[in-house]
């Protein structure tokens, strides 16, 4: 007869498993270590971008094209407009102001008025002439075109001259004339008014007569 104790199972029992519990404070510490690395990477990228932008603009500033453009001289611009009754134009008279030219097509009267900036911008210089005789239109009037140009005349106290001349052309005949302005810089620097007659410098025509004998 078997003993009651022999019928019991002798199979080994499973051992209990141990669960790992996180140590308090470890996860925040790891995140704190990652923040400086992100900051260093961000500043490195920002530095590379800044260096690239600075190099780009430095290259543009020192390019041969920019150097050539910076060496170009400044241009002094003038303007001219014509209508049925009047022609107007501007031209450099002094270092301080331009001259304002007005041509009356009916009478042929040409005026040049100049302001003095140091006198509050008042017209203090006035020069006039009649272009009808110079271009051959006579008293009947004409259809004119007018513009100004540059001319560096020798400066002399007894022969003052502005560095601008005015050209007038009669479109009906093709005759044209060039006038100078006796602007006195000494008088202008003293803020004294001045006036006078424009000087006829030369004349010409757009329809020259060809002398065939001189061409042979």
Which features characterize this protein?
216 residues; alpha+beta
Poorly predicted sequence stretches spanning 5 or more consecutive residues: 1-9
Q: What is the N-to-C succession of helices and strands?
A: HHEEEEEHEEEHEEH
**What is the CA-based Rg, rounded?**
46 Å
- The number of strands is 10
How far apart the termini lie comes to: 164 Å
Largest sheet: 6 strands, mixed
Number of domains: 2
What structural category do the secondary elements indicate?
A: alpha+beta
Query: What's the tally of helices?
Result: 5
Approximately how much helix is present in the residues? 25-40%
Q: Report the portion of residues in β strands.
A: 25-35%
Average pLDDT for all residues? 78
- Major β-sheet strand ordering: 1-2-3-4-5-9
- Outline: elongated
Overview of this protein structure:
A six-stranded mixed β-sheet has the order 1-2-3-4-5-9. A four-stranded antiparallel β-sheet has the order 6-7-8-10, with no helix packed on it. It is built from five helices and ten strands. A hairpin with a 3-residue loop joins β1 (about 80) and β2. The longest helix is centred in the first third of the chain and has 36 residues, at about 25-60. It has helices spanning about 25-60, 65-70, 130-135, 185-190, 210-215, and strands at about 80, 85-90, 100-105, 110-115, 120-130, 145-150, 165-170, 175-180, 195, 200-205. The chain is about 25% helix and about 30% strand. The chain has two domains: about 30-70; about 80-205, no CATH class. The protein has about 220 residues and is an alpha+beta fold.
């Amino acid at each position: 007869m078997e003993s009651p104790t022999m019928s019991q199972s002798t199979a080994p029992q499973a051992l209990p498993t141990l669960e790992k519990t996180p140590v308090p404070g470890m996860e925040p510490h790891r995140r704190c270590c990652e923040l400086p690395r992100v900051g260093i990477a961000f500043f490195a990228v920002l530095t590379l971008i800044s260096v690239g932008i600075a190099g780009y603009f430095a290259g543009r500033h020192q390019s041969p094209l920019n150097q050539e453009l910076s060496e170009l001289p400044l241009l002094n611009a003038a303007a001219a407009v014509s209508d049925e009754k009047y022609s107007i134009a501007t031209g450099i008279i002094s270092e301080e102001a331009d001259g304002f030219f007005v041509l009356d097509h009916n009478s042929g009267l040409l005026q040049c008025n100049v302001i003095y900036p140091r006198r509050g911008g008042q017209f203090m210089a006035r020069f006039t002439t009649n272009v009808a005789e110079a271009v051959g239109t006579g008293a009947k009037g004409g259809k004119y075109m007018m513009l100004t140009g540059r001319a560096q005349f020798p400066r002399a106290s007894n022969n003052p001259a502005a560095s601008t001349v005015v050209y007038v052309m009669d479109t009906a005949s093709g005759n044209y004339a060039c006038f100078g302005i006796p602007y006195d810089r000494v008088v202008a620097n003293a803020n004294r008014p001045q006036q006078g007659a424009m000087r006829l410098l030369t004349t010409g025509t757009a329809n020259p007569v060809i002398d065939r004998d001189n061409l042979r």
